[in-house]
Amino acid sequence: MGKRLRQICYTKSMVLHNWFLPHKDTHNKAHLISWQALFFYVCLFIFLQVGFSIISYTKPGVLGISANLENLDQKKIIELTNTERQKLGLSPVSENEELDKAASAKADNMFTENYWAHFAPSGKSPWDFILGAGYRFTFAGENLAKNFYSSDDVVKAWMNSPSHRENLLNSKYKDIGIAVKMGVLNGQNTVLVVQEFGTTQNIANKPAVNVSGKQVAVPNEDFSKPVLFASVSQYNLNTKPLLDPYLFFKYAGISLVSFMVLLLAVDILVLYKRGVLRISSHYMAHMSILSISAVSIITSHQGSIL
Amino acid sequence: MTMKYRDLINKGFIVSLTLVTIIWIWKLSFFPILQLRTLVIAAIAYLVWAFMYHYMDKSLTLSIFIEYLLTAVLAIILLTGVLLG
Question: What number of C-beta contacts closer than 8 Å exist between A and B?
Answer without folding.
Answer: 125
